[in-house]
Design a protein that fits this description.
3-stranded antiparallel beta sheet, disordered N terminus, 5-stranded parallel beta sheet, about 45% helix
Length: about 300
């Protein structure tokens, strides 16, 4: 029996060594269960590394691409409001909580504006976890996230990130301009102006399921509790999408609104506050173009009287 146990232990050690070596070797290949997204879509790598140069801000923005493409710090600065956008691609509350806990002390916001939607809470968080692990500094918080999500891609990405750190890989430099995107100081990503030409498909927004992920809902509550403990005001906002896209998800939007109301969180659905043009104010079904961002941001400042921060 003792020999059998020793054999199992030895086999386990050999397998672990082999697995780590395999991850190290295939990390740069398009391996199915390892997707290390260094410098991925959304400029998170650059955004994180700008933080040390940022002083205390009036507003910190959190959320998905609707955040880092929807809140332009340059517009807020015109009203004497300093801000930083800590959004990331497909960001869910699980990742938002990590970013908030890690960088709150550096940014010291007076208000946190968090972009949320039915998509946010019905997302499993895997895609955003890969983006975060590859482009942020890995800590014990990312390990906890990996255990919560419990997905092989997240585990493999975390392991590969640790291997890169151990081997001291050459620092990455992310270009300011990538395709149609330009990174703007303050965490914003401006897209070259174009108008929406997409038509609503039968299953548009199909990633939105009928149920919200319990882990995401709990993380949202924890974010609110964290900010309350810090005496920081938090405002949850659903950014504008095209009217056709919004109305195609009326049931989910109602359910989401009820959830936010039951949580007792301050929530504004700006699809009900301002009216935008589906073609000239968007570049696809649910992302604002620069013209739409300007309309939305000025409406937001006026609606919430944010200019009184000073």
């Amino acid at each position: 029996m003792k020999k059998f146990i020793l054999t199992l232990v030895a086999a386990g050690l050999l397998f672990s060594i082999f697995y780590v070596m395999a991850i190290a070797l295939v990390g740069w290949l398009p391996f199915k269960n390892l997707n290390y997204r260094l410098g991925a879509y959304g400029h998170l790598y650059t955004r994180i590394r700008e933080i040390p140069s940022v002083k205390e801000v009036d507003i910190l923005f959190l959320g998905s691409s609707h955040s880092y493409r929807g809140f332009d710090p340059r517009i807020f600065s015109q009203y004497g409001i300093s801000s930083f956008n800590l959004g990331s691609s497909s960001q869910t509350p699980v990742q938002a909580k990590i970013l908030l806990e890690k960088y709150y002390e550096d940014l010291r916001p007076k208000i946190v504006i968090y972009e949320v939607s039915p998509m946010t809470l019905s997302n499993d968080g895997i895609e955003s976890s890969l983006d975060l692990i590859a482009n942020d500094y890995v800590s014990e918080k990312e390990l906890k996230m990996a255990l919560e999500l419990n997905h092989v891609k997240t585990y493999n990405s975390l392991l590969y990130a640790e291997i890169r750190d151990l081997l001291n890989f050459r620092p990455y430099h992310e270009p300011k301009n990538v395709g149609m995107d330009t990174y703007v100081a303050g965490g914003y990503v401006e897209r070259r102006l174009e108008h929406n030409k997409q038509k609503l498909k039968a299953n548009a927004g199909g990633s939105v399921t009928s149920n919200f992920e319990s882990l995401q809902v709990e993380s949202l509550k924890e974010i609110a509790a964290f900010l309350k403990n810090k005496h920081i005001k938090v405002i949850f906002i659903q950014t504008p999408v095209t009217s056709t896209y919004y109305h195609s998800q009326q049931k989910m939007n109602r359910k989401f609104g009820f959830l936010m109301a039951n949580l007792g969180l301050p929530y504004y659905d700006f699809n009900k506050v301002i009216k935008l043009n589906d073609t000239t104010d968007f570049y696809d079904l649910h992302h604002l173009n620069q013209k739409g961002v300007e309309h939305f941001n000025r409406a937001l400042i006026g609606q919430l009287a944010l200019s009184k921060l000073k």
